[in-house]
Amino acid sequence: MSRVVVGSQNNADIEIYYEDHGEGQPVVLIHGYPLNGHSWERQERALLAAGYRVITYDRRGFGQSSQPTTGYDYDTFAADLNTLLDHLGLTDVVLVGFSMGTGEVVRYLGTYGSGRVRKAALLGVIPPFLLKTDDNPEGVDRQVFEDIKAAIVADRYAYFINFFDNFYNTDVLGGTRISDPALRASFTVAVG
């Protein structure tokens, strides 16, 4: 259970919480919204058993990391990742991003290059720019994002219950339903 300072706001450090376990080739697991590093629990166990060094972290604004009022863009997320990799002296790293974390992997590679990265895996990819614009006609209407913000402000807990029901598609998983404890664990991670 460690932290690295990635910046500051109002004379307070912005810290990223991370966990670093095992030995071998480093694998950095980058969670999606609205999760944190604990969402990789099962994958972490399997990777450690296979002989990898596994680093999970809570992206800024999530889990045990600082929650500043700014810096929630892919350039800043990628800079945070770069600071973590520098801090740990990682090379030959495998970056694994899930959902929103995939945009962070891509932005990191585009900004900082692949010199220290051996492989990158993008799981459950979403585009790094979701908003529908003239340049992005296939994007999501602005009203969808406004509705999300309003739902979170109105009742954050109810929003996340609905979010995870839709996220895991709890009623139609090809005959396999996610367990209630697994669903509750994701909810707990999301709400802190």
Descriptive report:
- With 192 residues, the protein is of the alpha/beta class.
- The chain folds into two domains: 1-128, 3-Layer(aba) Sandwich (Rossmann fold), CATH 3.40.50; 131-191, no CATH class.
- 39% of the residues lie in helices and 22% in strands.
- A six-stranded mixed β-sheet has the order 1-2-4-3-5-6.
- Helix 4 packs antiparallel against helix 5.
- 28% of the residues are buried.
Question: Regarding quaternary structure, how should these chains be classified?
Answer: single chain
- What percent of residues adopt helix (DSSP H or I)? 25-40%
The CATH level-2 architecture of the largest domain is identified as 3-Layer(aba) Sandwich
- Strand order in the largest sheet: 1-2-4-3-5-6
What's the shape? globular
Largest beta sheet, briefly?
Answer: 6 strands, mixed
Features:
192 residues, alpha/beta, Rossmann fold, 6-stranded mixed beta sheet, 6 strands, 22% strand
In short:
The protein is α/β, with parallel strands linked by helices. It has helices at residues 41-49, 74-88, 100-112, 142-167, 180-191, and strands at 2-9, 12-21, 26-30, 53-58, 93-98, 117-123. It has five helices and six strands; from the N terminus they run βββαβαβαβαα.
List the helices and strands and how they pair.
Layout: E1 2-9, E2 12-21, E3 26-30, H1 41-49, E4 53-58, H2 74-88, E5 93-98, H3 100-112, E6 117-123, H4 142-167, H5 180-191
Parallel strand pairs: 3-4, 3-5, 5-6
Antiparallel strand pairs: 1-2, 2-4
Helix pairs in contact: 2-3, 4-5
